[in-house]
Amino acid sequence: MNIEKAITEKQGTIVDVRSPGEFMGGHVSGSVNIPLQELGGRMSELESLKQPLILCCASGNRSGMAQQILSQAGFECANGGSWLDVDYYSKQA
What span, in angstroms and rounded, lies between the C-alpha atoms of 16 and 80? Predict the structure, then answer.
């Protein structure tokens, strides 16, 4: 999957897996905040989102873990890395 293309063409949903406090400090416009530790309990919510899921966090570590969890659960998803990078690409649309 070309992550940049998916973001700029708004092909899926951006999911920020940081804590609510981090999310409130700044996030990608239109993104959904589902903290990494809450993924397991919010699978039905994730299923209702337009795929692919573009995952982001502060540095790419938590979104990488989220990508492994969600891929194993059958989701089409990708690690977008830092939310700042994802935000940059989203503004190129």
Answer: 10
